[in-house]
C-alpha cells in the first residue's frame, strides 16, 4: 500500500509535542510491515536540519493557487532517520514558515490552510496517487475538504483519507477569508452546519470539524479518549459532530518507539537490563541517587516526568511531592512549566526543598536525565486532568517503574489497578489507578503503592515484572491502522 502522511510535525526534525512522535513512529512501523510511506511537512526555518540526510531539490516549480493568483513553492526531499520526507517552502511575502516557531502566530489558520493546499497541489502536480492520505490534527483538517470538493475532479478521485485527532482543544478557526484564499469560495455552502460551520459560532469555520465531516475514517489516540470525546465535554464542542459520524470514528492507542525507549539497549542509562535480569534497574537507582545528590538509602523513589500545567493535574503533582516524602519515600521531578505562575511556584518549591536529601526538582527538560529517571525510579505518577493517550505510563511500564495514574483517556487503556481492576486477572494487572481529582484519592493510591513496596517486596517485584510484559510498541497500533486503511480503500 502507498501511504502519504501530511502533518505539521515529524520527530525528531520537527517536534513540539507527541504529534511528531506519532507521525515518525507510525510511519516507521508501516514501512517495517512492507508498505511505502512518504511524509509531507512544512519547511520551517527552525527545523533540526542535523536530523535530515541528503536534502535535495525534489520539485522546484510548484505553483499553489492562492487568492485567485498562485504562490511559487520549492519542495525539498530528504531522509529523516530512514523516512522519506518532503518539505514545502513557499516563496512569498507572507513568510508562512520562517517565523522562528512552529505555532503561536496570529495567522496560524492561514499558514496551515496554505500548507494543506500546497500538500495536495504537490501530490497532484508530481503525479503521486497514494492509496491513503493520513493527516493529523486541525492543521491539516482542510485536506479532506479540498480533496473531496476540488482535487477529486482533477484526477485524485481514488484517494482516501484517514484523519487523526491528537488534541481536541485546538481546532483551527477561520472566517470566509479561508474560502477565498483556498479557492473553496461558496460561502453559503461551507457555512452550513453539516459542513464546516463551527458548532457554536455561526460566523466561524472549524478546520477540525471539516476533517471529521469529509474524511473517510477518523481516529483519536486511545479507545477511552474516543469515548470521552464522543460523550463528555472532552470533545470541546465537537461531540455532536462525532456522534453524526460515529460509524467512522474510533480510538487507536499510540505506541512508543521501541528502539528509543528500551532498557535493554538504552544508551542514556549506565546499566542496561531486562525483566529477566532486574539487577541493572537497582544499579540505575543508585546512579540516579548519586547524580541528583539524594541520600543513598533503601527507600522507594516516586517520580514525575512531564509538563507542569493544568492538563497534567499540577495541583496533584505538588501534593504528591510532600505526601510521598511524609510516607518515607524519595521524590524526583523533571518538568517545565508552561505558565509563569506555575513556573514561579515550582521555583519556590525547589528553593524550599533544595537541602532535602530525599527530594530533587529539576525544572526544565533533559532527555538524557529522563531516561535515567525512568530506569531508576520505583514508581511514576501521572495524575492528569485529561490525557488523550499518555506515553509516560507506557514508558514507565517498559522500564519496570510502576505507574500511579488517574483513570482518564489512554491511562485507562494501559494501566490496570493491582487491587481493584475487575476486567483483568491478578497476573495481568500492572499499576495503580485513582479517579477523583482530590487529595484523598491520590493519597490512598500512593499509600497502596508504597505500602506494597515496604511490606511485600516480592509482590512489588511481581507487579514490576507484570508491567514489563506489556507490549506498547507500535506493533499493535500499526496493525490497527492498516485495518482502517484497508476498510476505507474498498469503500
How would you sum up this structure, described in words?
With 491 residues, the chain is α/β, with parallel strands linked by helices. It folds into two domains: 2-255 and 475-489, Rossmann fold, CATH 3.40.50; 279-468, 3-Layer(aba) Sandwich (Rossmann fold). Helix content is 37%, strand content 20%. It has helices at 18-32, 108-125, 142-149, 176-182, 187-190, 207-214, 223-231, 239-244, 279-291, 314-326, 340-353, 367-376, 392-398, 409-414, 439-455, 457-468, 475-489; strands at 2-6, 36-42, 52-66, 69-80, 83-91, 132-136, 160-165, 173-174, 205-206, 217-220, 249-251, 301-305, 330-335, 359-363, 379-382, 402-406, 432-434. It has a nine-stranded mixed sheet, sandwiched between helices. Helix 1 (18-32) links the parallel strand 1 and strand 2. Helix 2 crosses helix 3 and helix 15 (439-455) crosses helix 16 (457-468). The protein is elongated. It starts with a strand and ends with a helix. The relative contact order is 0.10. The model has no long low-confidence stretch (mean pLDDT 96).
